Amino acid sequence: MKLKSYFISGVIVIVPAAVSVWILWKIFIFLEGLIGQWIQKAIPQFYVRGLGFISLIAIILVLGFFAQNIFGRKILRYIEKGFLSVPIFNRLYHFVHSILQQVFRKEKETFSGVALITLSEGITTIGFITSRDPLFEGQGNEYWTVFVPTVPNPTTGLLLNIHRDRINVLPVTIEQGMKVLLSFGIFKVSDAANPNKSDSSEKN
Predict the structure, then answer these.
(1) Angle, helix 89-104 to helix 70-84, in steps of 10 degrees
(2) What per-residue confidence (pLDDT) applies to 98?
(3) CA 177/CA 114 separation, integer angstroms
(4) C-alpha count within 13 angstroms, C-beta hemisphere, residue 17
(5) Does residue 148 carry a pLDDT above 60?
(6) Distance (Å, whole) CA 109 – CA 104
(7) In whole angstroms, what separates CA 63 from the centre of its chain?
(8) Which of 3, 72, 84, 172 could form a disulfide with 90 if both were Cys (CB 3.0 to 4.6 A apart)?
(9) In sequence order, what are the residues at sequence separation of 6 or more whose Cβ sits closer than 8 angstroms to the Cβ of residue 172?
């Protein structure tokens, strides 16, 4: 029994670590390839793995510096106008730009709360409140906008325009709500709302 317990404990430690390292490595490979392939073709004798990633970070920092001063802002505005003048591409650019502005906006979080959504009688799910205003005009304040992620990929899901009566705001943080979702419900909402309870149960 102890051997089985040791094995389970080892799996619990190594699997999340291995998956996290694998995801970070894939992200690194992707970002490295964006610039690295051009550097490798232009100056192959100086190219080493990681140079593309470092170059990409440097370019982002330089663009960020220009975007925060008057002179650079004017130049980037002209470049942005050029992007927006290209058919089809302009819609994609505006779409991605709007999403990034929403995600990285400092004065407002992407989600304003975690909620238990009643889809039908006896069926509920967890969602994240994106707006306490309706998607469509003329609905008053009775409808809220809620994002219901899918598992195991929380970047996809359903955007619901749902009546307030079907929404029960939960006393948990966004991080705790995501933990409930990504654990496939193993981490309970009650544990998130009462962390002292989960701590005491682990000790016992």
Answers:
(1) 140
(2) 67
(3) 6
(4) 6
(5) yes
(6) 8
(7) 23
(8) 84
(9) 114, 180, 189, 192, 193
168 has which bridge partners? 116
Structure tokens at 140: 């008053």
Task: Measure the CA angle with vertex 13, ends 8 and 16; round to 5°.
Answer: 115
Q: Are 156 and 150 in contact (CB under 8 A)?
A: yes
Q: What is the pLDDT of residue 60?
A: 83
For every residue of 124-184, DSSP letters joined together read: EEEEEEEESS-SSTTSTTSEEEEEEE-SS-TTSEEEEEEEGGGEEE-SS-HHHHHHHHHTT
pTM: 0.47
> 148 to each of 33, 44, 69, 128, how far by Cα in Å?
33, 47, 39, 6
Distance of alpha carbon 174 from alpha carbon 127, whole angstroms: 10
Largest CA distance in the chain: 69
3 state SS of 115: strand
Contacts of 83 (CB under 8 A, 6+ apart): 89, 90, 93
In contact, 79 and 66? CB cutoff 8 Å: no
Judge whether 145 and 130 are in contact, CB under 8 Å. Answer: yes
Q: CB-hemisphere CA count at 13 Å for 194?
A: 6
Q: How many CB atoms lie within 10 A of CB 114?
A: 26
